[in-house]
Model the fold of this input.
Amino acid sequence: MFVIHGIMVIIEWLKFKVAAEERERFIQIDEDIWTEALAKYPGFLGKEVWLSPNPEEVALIVRWRTKADWSAIPVDVLQKTERRFAIAFGQPYDLFEEGEYQVRKFLHNGS
Done:
């Protein structure tokens, strides 16, 4: 049994609406541009893509070691990255839900 207690991870929750036929391309361009940019910063722990049964929705779950790590990314870097993404994607999309959550512990192989 492997258990880690007392670890707090910050989750950045982003939910997008995108044309169903563009969803896979949206995910790939996000990986190529956003994930690559965020991975350069300390505290970035990883990112997951959650697919809704609704083919026009994509949720991105970004894991950060601390809120301070997440907040330390300069605003101009975020703006430049968003511009790069928007140009590369070239289609409309809508960030319609965002939030912040905390994971207080992970439980692995809890047998």
Observations:
- The domain at 2-104 is CATH 3.30.70.100 (Alpha-Beta Plaits).
- The chain has a mean pLDDT of 90.
- The first strand starts at residue 2 and ends at 4.
